[in-house]
Design brief:
The protein is an alpha+beta fold and 235 residues long. Helix content is 37%, strand content 33%. α4 packs antiparallel against α5 and α4 crosses α6. This is Lipoprotein.
């Protein structure tokens, strides 16, 4: 009698353990994905384009300009059920910075490339070293172009102001001509002349560079700093 009862209890324990295992398996099984439950979504590329934003003012009257490039894609999204029948269709527009890509620049006879940053931007500066020796008097148009593959190209242009062209020609000499052949007063003239031309950034950069270059000669450095302090614009 006791043996029969024990056997019955053992069977019940086995059945309870099996049921618990099955229950745990059901609760841990991942739910079907939305795509499996409701079918699938197909995405078709309709158009792909680039856009160069060179600023609202097309005429360049300073040596610098911030350029931004944007990449845009238009997709058609089609939702299908489990049998492949169309349920819904809509457009999806995507616009992102054209990050870490090359933009080609044509400035007179110079052809160079600039890489965009994470925001799809780069800085155009006509006083960069790549343009040294360029005859700015003959530079009328700057062409910027970008390509993301066959059929995905864009191009835009900037015009160069006449007054800027003459400033660039003079500024290049003030910045890049041999500094070692000049004395302290000529250094001061270069710094101040750049400021008079409205090129304050270049004026400050040249001043800081001259102070850095004379670090090994405290006397010369002191003379330059003193001359800067004593001079007045226009001297």
């Amino acid at each position: 009698m006791n043996t029969a009862i024990g056997t019955l209890n053992y069977a019940r324990l086995i059945w309870a353990g099996t049921a618990l295992a099955l229950l745990q398996a059901c609760t841990t099984q991942p739910a079907p994905s939305p795509e499996t439950a409701s079918g699938r979504i197909e995405r078709e590329l309709v158009s792909h384009s680039l856009h160069i934003d060179a600023g609202e003012q097309r005429v360049l009257d300073t040596p610098h300009r911030s350029i931004k490039v944007t990449e845009s894609r238009l997709y058609t999204l089609t939702q299908l059920d489990s049998t492949g029948a169309q349920l819904d269709q809509q457009d999806q527009f995507q616009s992102l910075p054209w990050a870490n890509q090359l933009v080609d620049l044509a400035v007179g006879e110079v052809r160079i490339s600039r890489q965009t940053d994470q925001d799809g931007q780069f800085r155009l500066n006509l006083l960069d070293e790549e343009f040294v020796g360029l005859n700015f008097d003959e530079v009328r148009v700057i062409t910027l172009s970008a390509s993301a593959g066959p059929g995905v190209q864009t191009e835009t242009t900037l015009l160069v102001d006449r007054d800027l062209r003459s400033k660039l020609q003079e500024a290049e000499q003030l910045i890049y001509d041999n500094l070692e052949e000049d004395d302290v007063n000529q250094w001061v003239f270069r710094v101040q002349r750049l400021a008079e031309l409205g090129l304050n950034e270049e004026s400050s950069q040249l001043e800081n560079m001259l102070i850095l270059l004379t670090t090994g000669d405290p006397q010369l450095q002191g003379d330059f700093i003193q001359a800067l302090g004593e001079a007045t614009p226009g001297e």
